[in-house]
Amino acid sequence: MTRLGDHQGALRSIEGASALEPENALLHRLKGDTLVHLGMKVEALASYREALRLDPGMYPAYVNIGNLLSELGHFDLAVKTLSHLIKLDESNADALISRGAAFMRINLVHEAHRDFARALEIAPRSTLARHNLSVTHSTLGEPRQALELLDQLILTNPESQRDRYTRSLLLLVTGELPAAWE
User: Fold this and answer.
1) Quick one: CA dihedral 64, 69, 71, 72, positive or negative?
2) In angstroms, rounded to a whole number, what is the distance separating the alpha carbons of residues 48 and 70?
3) Would you call 147 helix, strand, or coil by DSSP?
4) 52-72 residue pLDDT tens
5) Residue 59 CA: distances (Å) to CA of 40, 150, 181
6) How far apart are CA 114 and CA 100, in angstroms?
7) Residue 94: which residues within 8 A CB-CB, separation 6 or more?
8) CA atoms 20, 30, 87, 83: torsion sign
9) Contact of 117 with 130, CB cutoff 8 Å
10) pTM of the model
11) Contact 66, 84 (CB under 8 A)
């Protein structure tokens, strides 16, 4: 039995189960998730790829591959991987958010903005899509739209330090004052 947070123990258990069921795509995906927690990103990529080889419909593995490629600095490959998934499932908000983040890393702000806006249409409660969309508005020189999105986030989650911090920075940089302060 593994303890909560014992990723090495979990990896041993998953590898043992994989030896008994080598064609089980879910086990390969779980192995990838565990390897990510252990900081073994290249090995995790291999596990996610194996999961997709066994089950091409395991869409979360595509998102995980895209995120890992971005973390490893391969933004163009991340965009390509996530674009492939979006062709298969155009309503995958996670893929749109991840591709938007990769677009931001290569300064394709308009493309990122489009992806975050589409993700928010698909998943209106996604705080990550709303936050990232506010960042693109700010980057595109649209501080009022950015502040409006951040205000919505803070209203729905007053404890969000990330959104309060981003909003404060935006106010400082732009000199914009909220309507209530004017």
Assistant:
1) positive
2) 15
3) helix
4) 999 999 999 999 999 999 999
5) 21, 30, 46
6) 8
7) 60, 63, 119
8) negative
9) no
10) 0.83
11) no
